[in-house]
Amino acid sequence: MHGPEIEKVLTNLGYELKRVKDGWQTNRIYAHGDNPTALTIYPEKNLVIDWVQNVKFSIPKLIALSIGTEDLKDVDEWLTKQDIKISFPEEKPKLNFPKTFPKEILNELLPIHDYWLKRGISLETLRLFKGGLAGNKGVLKNRYVFPIFDAQNNIVGFTGRDVLENGAKFKRPKWKHLNSKGLWKWPLFLNHQIIKDKKEAILVESVGCCLSLWEAGIKNSICLFGVELNNAILNFLLRFDISKIIIATNNDALNDGDAGNIAAQKIEKKLSKFFDQDHIIIHLPRPEKDFNEILMMEDGKKLIQEWYKGIK
To answer: Which of 98, 131, 153, 312 has an alpha carbon 20 to 30 Å from 47's alpha carbon atom?
Structure first.
């Protein structure tokens, strides 16, 4: 592959390439898109990832789309006219669609909600989020499971919270995720219109934080499933020009170090490449580590609402 030549070709086609590790990020010119992170291009791998459509294809395919053709032979002719010679691997990458799951799987979840009910989450909310307890079989056995939906209401994954007693024989991780969480935008299947209308989003670490905010009447949160901001969420924020982004990772400084604050600063740094600084606010949960801990306190809903009112 010839990185400089490819860069020249794409620049001539109008792509504004921003350097990232091993490649570039840019917008989907062939789809008239203006999101600067919609595409990631890896010249040495002859690979293009379209984060909007969640597909992968080759650089010749990208050039073909950009010059308005579906025939890769037209790409060779176009490059010849540009007096550019590039050798691409003959094998063409296959389109890669995210795995989906049949909705009938939801019928296998048991309506046993004790774990979350004890943590202040109402039955109404749990049913709205379509949660349920997995049985004692499968990779998510003995976990309280929530399905992950995409924009087309397909199930693209599951997340499960361990609900075994502490005396279990083997210690298990609290959370287990099925399928790639790097493509998840949860719970946008419920609140995408709320966020778009408010132009405001709250980024939190966990499912429990989303549920707890919802219980307090604050319904514009997005779950990171950790402390990394994935490109799928970033693209959503950019696409709908969200003007107020509140970073509310766990307040770890209260008990076990400053991990939450460090994570928040990393997320802020990533967002600041695309949003004005006054659109980004770090406002960690208080007076406890996370929103579910606050919810379980006396007057927990009121405390969460006061936290929200204190955002500046």
So the answer is: 153
